[in-house]
């Protein structure tokens, strides 16, 4: 499965999910 083979909206969805998880992870680290 190649990244470039994914439909553009799929790429944006995964990028959004990745950023969202990263921001949530940072928030939990700051709270800790």
Automatic annotation (TrEMBL):
<protein>
    <submittedName>
        <fullName>Uncharacterized protein</fullName>
    </submittedName>
</protein>
């Amino acid at each position: 499965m190649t990244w470039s083979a994914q439909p553009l909206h799929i790429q944006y969805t995964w990028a959004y999910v990745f950023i969202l998880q990263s921001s949530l992870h940072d928030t939990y680290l700051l709270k800790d």
